[in-house]
Amino acid sequence: MAVGLIGSAVKADAPLRVVSMNLCTDQLAMLVASDGQLVSVSRLARDPRSSAMVEQARGFPVNHAQTEEIYLMRPDLVLAGRYTARATVDMLTRLGVPVAIFDPANSLEDVASRLTQMGEALGREGRAAEIVTQYRDGLTEFQAEVTRNPRAALFSANGYTSGNHTLAGQILLTAGFANVAAEAGYAMAGNMPLEVLALAQPEAVITSRPYPGGSRAEEIMDHPLVQSMRRNTAGFTDHDWVCGTPFVLRAIGNLAKLRQELEAE
Amino acid sequence: MKRLFAILAAMMVLLFLGSLVIGPAKTGIGENLVALLAGGDGPLPLIMREIRLPRALLAVMIGGGLGLAGAAMQGYLRNPLADPGLIGVSSSAALGAVLAIQTGFAAMGSLALPGAALVGALAGVLLVMLLAGPRGSSLTLILAGIAISALAAALTSLVLNLSPNPFASNEIIFWMMGSLADRSMTHVSIALPFILTGGAMLASLGRGLDALTLGEDAAEAMGINLHRLRLTLILGTAAVVGASTAVAGAIGFVGLVIPHILRGFVGGRPGALLWASAMGGAVMLLAADIAVRMVLPDRDLKLGVLTALVGAPLFLHLIYRTRRAGQ
Fold it and tell me: What is the CA radius of gyration of chain B?
């Protein structure tokens, strides 16, 4: 068999009706699956705040991760995240539906592993390998020399911040920033008190964009202290940051531009 | 009386200073106060002036306001169970604030949010007064309060659950329990005018409330205009409770506990109880806000948890005593 054929073909024992019920597996599956293999994605895949693939997701019926609707779609494989809709996953397993569980990505290397895992689950190893190669090539472009690492903090609703052992933290590091949360002792994610942020005096504060309707949790990002630290170089986290997909490259690229602006000051 | 004033004032000053020097950024006490007063370079003056000072100021304003409102309502209704939190005024204010935030009305100007909460509080007070009557018995007052609290809390939860904001529904607990975490000078400036005006209105009721202890006829004979007194009480309470709730959520039991503790010290005179309760309320909320930071420094423990832990047993005791007195 020619190698090129494997890239576009589905193996004989590959699943034919795949339902994804997690935002991150939705996007991995849309990238890797062959035409017609994926039958449904989760509701969030169409939400522009969370999903980097809204346009593609419009081509699929959505599900709400509820056992009944998923079972009625007669899937021969269900894709789920480690922590999503546990009751639904348990019930589907009891009903004899195969479920592939994907762990969340906590590093840039995890993105490649999840893509490979998706390739194996869908019988599309070739396509997955292609994307992984492109992704790794994209990553090496960011290894270019960085003269200085400005200190930045990720700070979103409720003071939620991410340390170096998280996907968001790795995006920050790869874009050439030093992570203030790591200095303050946050290896994983957690809520950083406003005072601790102020004491650290980061050069840039990267917040999330507030949702409509307003909430007290997000008010912290409008606190005069945070505003003064953000100055003109405000970065925002968006849908490219949410899941371990190759779209993290775009997040790193945008953030690297912010760093260059800071360095030019 | 002078001694009580001196003791309360000393406690207020001590706790205010304590509130300023306790926080997650562990810096020296002297260093903190110098940064607050003299400023200087670095992040510490900002932390003191933008994070800790507004928090301590809000505790004084809101605690004082709630203590005063509780004392005034108890004096007017001649009922020791009348607390703005218990009789549903705070919950109604929270509903007003939540509606204003979720509809976008709160963004129209700095007066919009406390104004909406004031309207909510006003509706709550009027409903309670209407249902319980001007000389309502404890039973009707508490029943009316339960009904209004439950209705307002349900509507608040509904509005927050319907919100497009994914964080909103988690904030039901904030609106029901209250917290001063991460408030800024902006919150002080929007609440202050309402609390000062409402507080001044309530403080002016002293003579009228003293006269009322002799009965309504006697009070009118002494030249007290009861209609005016009631109107001042309703508007003052709504302004104080509305603005407090708009920035800090509904904090219960301050207006119940403080007048109850201090009543003996002022010889049972409702007029003197007003200023004493304002100071006592500030002391209680400052202490509670320090406690939430010391018990669980990493989590935002709600103020209402602590005030209820102190207040609910006292409330039960009051009910027990009221029942015995009725027999």
Answer: 19
Residue corresponding to tokens 């709550």: B124
Instruction: Tell me which chain A residues have a C-beta less than 8 angstroms from the C-beta of B47.
Output: 195, 198-199, 225
Instruction: Report the domain count for chain A.
Output: 2
The model's pTM is 0.87
| CB contact residues (below 8 A), chain A span 135-194, against chain B | 157-159, 191, 193-194
**In this structure, are residues A236 and A218 in contact, taking their beta carbons and an 8 Å threshold?**
no
Element (H, E) at A256: helix A248-264
Tell me which chain B residues have a C-beta less than 8 angstroms from the C-beta of A200. Answer: 43
Are A199 and B174 inside 8 Å of each other by CB?
Answer: no
Q: Which H or E run includes A40?
A: strand A38-42
Q: Which of B175, B182, B300 should one mutate to test binding to chain A, selecting the residue with the greatest count of A CBs within 10 A?
A: B182
Nearest C-alpha of chain A: how many angstroms from B76? 35
Task: Provide the CATH topology of domain B2-326.
Answer: ABC transporter involved in vitamin B12 uptake, BtuC (1.10.3470)
B146–chain A nearest CA distance, Å: 26
Domain ranges of chain B: 2-326
Does A63 lie in the same domain as A23?
yes
Q: How many helices (H) and strands (E) does chain A have?
A: 14, 11
Q: Kindly state whether residues A109 and A190 are assigned to the same domain.
A: no
List per-block mean pLDDT (blocks of 10 residues) for chain B, which spans 327 residues: 93 96 83 85 88 96 97 90 89 95 89 94 91 75 90 95 90 92 92 96 95 91 91 94 95 93 92 96 96 85 91 86 72
